[in-house]
């Protein structure tokens, strides 16, 4: 996460909170599957295949939707050039709105749209064509947190661990909020996620194109 300005850190933390919120809504609706945590879905898929249960098919669908979202977001971001962040966030917002509009209808379209949105949002932060800040998965952030603690104790940056901790806490806070909202609103809580995503998109417009401090 090194090399980013404070406003862009703030955007990353906000996106992690969005991912936590959306993932909590998906987890509670699907009863154990995720719309952003594909490592968990991969394990559930494998267990489902071994046990011959239907969960394997749903896990495969969610993984496919997530990868499709990453692919689509990457293409849109590439076409948008220096306005990649804003274009990708607009795409994520559009998919979340479509998912919210589909609430109450049968089928898996809602959760697949949620998974696609969570895939696409990982294109907001890139460096040299690679994700520089993963906002929907925290295993890497926790690994870097532990490594940064070790560096701080052995003469490295004293507070290099702080951004990784804040990123993880942001996702956890978003998930807590998502779970609380689900208890009251079910998947209609997606409208809250849409509002939060819209606010982050507005903040990205304030930050301006890539290259602006």
Notable traits:
single chain; 213 residues; mainly alpha; Growth Hormone, Chain: A; two-stranded antiparallel ribbon; 8 helices; 2 strands; 71% helix; globular; transmembrane helix; DUF1275; membrane; transmembrane
Structure description:
- It holds the Pfam family DUF1275.
- Keywords: Membrane, Transmembrane, Transmembrane helix.
- The chain crosses the membrane at residues 48-75, 87-104, 131-153, 165-183, 189-208.
- With 213 residues, the chain is mostly helical.
- It is 71% helix and 2% strand.
- It has one domain: Growth Hormone, Chain: A (Up-down Bundle), CATH 1.20.1250.
- A two-stranded antiparallel sheet has the order 1-2.
- A hairpin with a 2-residue loop joins strand 1 and strand 2 (130-131).
- It is globular.
Entry summary:
The protein is an all-alpha fold and 213 residues long.
**Helical residue percent band:** over 70%
Reading the helices and strands in chain order gives: HHHHHEEHHH
CATH T-level fold name: Growth Hormone, Chain: A
Tally of DSSP helical segments: 8
Q: Total domains, how many? A: 1
DSSP strand tally: 2
What's the level 1 CATH class? Mainly Alpha
Unreliable residue stretches: none
Q: State the end-to-end distance.
A: 16 Å
Global structural class: mainly alpha
What would the average pLDDT be, to the nearest integer? 92
Radius of gyration: 17 Å
> What can be said about the biggest beta sheet?
2 strands, antiparallel
DSSP strand (E) fraction?
Answer: under 5%
* Global geometry: globular
CATH architecture term: Up-down Bundle
| Strand line-up across the major sheet | 1-2
Keywords: Membrane, Transmembrane, Transmembrane helix
Transmembrane segments: 48-75, 87-104, 131-153, 165-183, 189-208
InterPro entries: DUF1275 (IPR010699)
Pfam family, one: DUF1275
């Amino acid at each position: 996460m090194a090399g980013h300005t404070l406003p862009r850190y703030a955007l990353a933390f906000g996106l992690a909170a969005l991912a936590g919120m959306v993932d909590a809504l998906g987890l509670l609706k699907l009863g154990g599957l995720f719309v952003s945590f594909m490592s968990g879905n991969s394990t559930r898929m494998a267990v489902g295949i071994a046990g011959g249960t239907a969960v394997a098919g749903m896990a495969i669908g969610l993984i496919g939707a997530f990868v499709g979202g990453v692919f689509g977001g990457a293409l849109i971001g590439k076409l948008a050039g220096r306005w990649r962040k804003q274009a990708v966030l607009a795409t994520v917002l559009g998919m979340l709105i479509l998912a919210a509009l589909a609430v109450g209808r049968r089928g898996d379209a809602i959760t697949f749209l949620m998974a696609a949105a969570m895939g696409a949002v990982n294109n907001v932060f890139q460096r040299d064509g690679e994700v520089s800040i993963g906002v929907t998965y925290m295993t890497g952030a926790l690994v870097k947190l532990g490594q940064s603690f070790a560096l701080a104790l052995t003469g490295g940056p004293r507070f290099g661990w702080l951004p990784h901790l804040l990123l993880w806490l942001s996702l956890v806070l978003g998930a807590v909020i998502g779970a609380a909202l689900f208890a009251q609103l079910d998947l209609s809580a997606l409208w809250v996620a849409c509002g939060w995503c819209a606010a982050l998109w507005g903040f990205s417009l304030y930050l301006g194109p890539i290259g602006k401090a």
